[in-house]
Target: Acyltransferase 3 domain-containing protein
Amino acid sequence: MVVSGHLCTAFVPWLHSPANDPHTAPHLFQLPFFRLAVGGRSAVALFFLITGYVNSIGPIGRSRAGNTDAAFNGIAKSALARSGRLVLPTMMATALTWFMANINAYHMTKHVDSTWIRQGWHRQEPTLGAAFSSLFKAEVDTWTVGWDDYDGTQWTLHLFLEGSMLVYMTMFATVLVKPKARFIVYAVLYLYFWQLGEGLAVGALKGLNIVFGMFVAELHNHYKDTATSVLPAPIPALMIIAGMFMAGFPQDSPQNAHWSDSMAHFMQAITVEKTDIRRYWDHIGAATVLLGIFFSRNARRVLTSPIFNFLGRVSFPVYLMHNTFIKSVLTWMVYLPSAMNPPRNEKGHQMDLQRGSTTHIFIAVAVFYYVLYRAAALWVQHIDPFCANLVNAATSWAYGESQPRESRPILQTIERRSSPSREKPKLDSPV
Model:
């Protein structure tokens, strides 16, 4: 959804509105539900929801089991390793787009008729020293000022890191409290971030989604395997449908349609002044969908199929590399015919390169998706293990571990220890 949203911004930005104007009938993909195919903002909210969920589910489980020492130990190790797990792959993605820019692979993007692609252009540095200096600046700025000159789509990554630390801090503070007290903590944090409303990121995008993700992790540990039987069958489905509708709140010009204009007025009435209400609807929509999936047996069955497991496995490298491939592979394919015979005005000055026909663009997008996901699969196969090994080596050194622990199946270890007495192994606590 993020990739399709950026493709939409590049080639058909008018689809981000619910209609071209208040008096014009909407296009099919400007309508509720259909517009999710071209809007990626709610998917970014989902990334933060999952961040809150997966980083808190372990400490919550250990806290509920009374295993507080293991909970504190897990928080400490996760907090130390989390930075490396986010920063290293991002640094490599930045190095990739830096390399592409400095071999002049983005030259064509400077002259295309797509404003969004053209804004992603970066010059080829004149000297090797200048090139490495710009790379260092981009690597640092991604985590300090939140902007990467070579890939603007990485602006959310420092928020992911901050969000993870918010989870660890909350878990550290609440490991010793009972679950009901932790629910109160979530409620207070949620209300705090709701009223914060600071720009487009801090309150609605990061805070609300992270806190709600922790709330769902608490529900997971509370209901365990019975979650899918808590609510009557139609209710989770209705939650998913309602969430998809709310997540489709338009990025631009909500006043052009009655349904989105009504949503805008409602959200403005319950948020602080000068708040980016789009991020609030993204959050509420994605959170409602996630909650519906949590309680739905059928939705879980669909989303644990092999195809969705693959999409989930490669989602982070897809996010890291898609802008690089849009500015190179896709741009080359879409604008190559025009680049071979550049259009010029009556004074002989080169004009913007023109994209090919609609059929041409659809074929180019299909090839682009294949190349992107093929590259992401290779990334998961080669780059991710390399980054994981570096992080593990660094944390092992920090912990003072001289040698890595031997990795053996837990059940096999139990059987070996209990085999002389022929006793059935007992597991007193979850691993």
In short: The two ends are 36 Å apart (CA to CA). The first helix runs from residue 2 to 11. Residues 2-382 form one domain. Residues 406-431 have pLDDT under 50 and may be disordered.
